[in-house]
Amino acid sequence: MSATRYRRFLKLCEEWPRDETKKGRDLGMFLRQRVAAAFREGEDTQIADPEKCDQMYESLARINGNVYRQRFPRAQDTSFTGITKEECRMLLSENMQQSMDEEKKGLWKTLINRFSSKSPEGVPEKAPEK
After folding, report:
1. Is the C or the N end of the chain the one with fewer CB within 10 Å?
2. Are 45 and 39 in contact (CB under 8 A)?
3. Which top-rank group of organisms is this from (predicted)?
4. Is 28 within 8 Å of 20 (Cβ atoms)?
């Protein structure tokens, strides 16, 4: 029976979409890693709790099959922030994450330079008057 479960999970992993813009943060990649870890011995893997395994598969299959999206259609294709699906995808992409990390580093360096600046004589500079 675990061979059947293993094949079902493999098929689900093949069907699950990949998002190349989220390297290392993609749900499909995470799912594939978890299935590989859970079924280390392939079809010969013994499942400790078969009912829980079947429930997990059914839940993932419903998510992948857009069951809830079809059951509960959205009135608009935006989130509560008002941004669209494509704008959200762009904001969560790897390129945007890298640029945000660079901005954080830039801000951090700016703050360090601002608070550690000293005059040439080794005496701290005066704070600007208000």
Report:
1. C
2. yes
3. Eukaryota
4. no
Q: Is the pTM of this model over 0.90?
A: no
Query: Which residue type does 100 have?
Result: M
Q: Quick check: 6 and 54 in contact, CB under 8 A?
A: no
Residues with Cβ within 8 Å of residue 35, at least 6 apart in sequence: 9, 10, 12, 13
CA distances from 114 to 35, 102, 124, 125, 129 (A): 49, 18, 11, 11, 16
Quickly tell me which residue has 């005066």 as its tokens: 126
Domain positions in the chain are 1-73, 79-114
Structure tokens at 2: 């675990």
